[in-house]
Amino acid sequence: MTPRGDIPSPTLERLAEYLRCLTETDVDVEEFISSDQLGKRTRWPAELVRRDLSYFGEFGRRGVGYNVTLLRHALARILELNRPQPVVLVGLGNLGRALLTYPGWDRFNLFIAAVFDTDPRLVGKRVLGHDVLNADAIPEVVPTTKARMAMLSVPGSAAQEVADQLVACGIRGLLNFAPLALEVPKTVLVRNVSFITELAVLSHYTAQEQ
């Protein structure tokens, strides 16, 4: 699945970094920010910052920079984070609990709308402020949340089946922590998160330095 409007995925990823940076900026201290400053804080060249933002119009003024509040609102709108966005979580193991307790959800208008698991010790219980529902209820519950995104922190053996259920319920974006390459329709975007993959890359580069 390609991003809406044919904007490259790397550009959208950088926009999310810019938004994070702007969200963490104290506007009482810093009302404006330049492309140089924004680039240094996100580790991207100022020219690339300006090019990314130019996809969506003119936001800054030469010699003044970008108004932090206005640019933050504009990026939130571009990324569809200017309104509450429900997210479904499937799998409440150690990783699932860590995702559930992440403190920054509301800063980006994201919230966990439903939590599912298959562990009978968890199903029916309230964990970290959320009712844990049986995964069998995904077809009935997910459509009522109006969520378009879901996070999978389930074993690889269960990931494809769960993904199929979520896609059938209207989920169009999957953040996949399971060690499995999911097969989904072209209309669904999967973002895979693998700590082992990232550490393997780091292992290679650090070994080369030695």
Briefly characterize the structure.
The chain is an alpha/beta fold and 210 residues long.
Structural commentary:
The chain is built from eight helices and ten strands. With 210 residues, it is α/β, with parallel strands linked by helices. The strands form two sheets. Strands 6-7-5-4-8-9-10 form a seven-stranded mixed β-sheet, with helices on one face. Strands 1-3-2 form a three-stranded antiparallel β-sheet. The longest helix has 15 residues, at 9-23.
Key traits:
210 residues, 10 strands, seven-stranded mixed β-sheet, globular, three-stranded antiparallel β-sheet, single chain, alpha/beta
Number of helices: 8
User: Could you state the order of secondary-structure elements as H and E?
Assistant: HEHHEEHEHEEEHEHEEH
The percentage helix is 40-55%
- Computed structural class: alpha/beta
Poorly predicted regions: none
Spatial sequence of strands, sheet with the most strands: 6-7-5-4-8-9-10
What is the CA-atom radius of gyration, in angstroms?
19 Å
Largest sheet: 7 strands, mixed
Q: Which oligomeric form is depicted?
A: single chain
What's the average pLDDT? 92
Beta strands, count: 10
User: How large is the share of residues in beta strands?
Assistant: 15-25%
Q: How widely separated are the two ends?
A: 40 Å
What would the principal axes of the Cα set say about the shape? Answer: globular
Explain the layout of strands and helices.
Elements: H1 9-23, E1 32-33, H2 35-42, H3 46-54, E2 60-61, E3 65-67, H4 68-78, E4 85-90, H5 94-100, E5 110-117, E6 126-127, E7 130-134, H6 138-145, E8 149-152, H7 156-168, E9 173-176, E10 189-192, H8 195-209
Parallel strand pairs: 4-5, 4-8, 5-7, 8-9, 9-10
Antiparallel strand pairs: 1-3, 2-3, 6-7
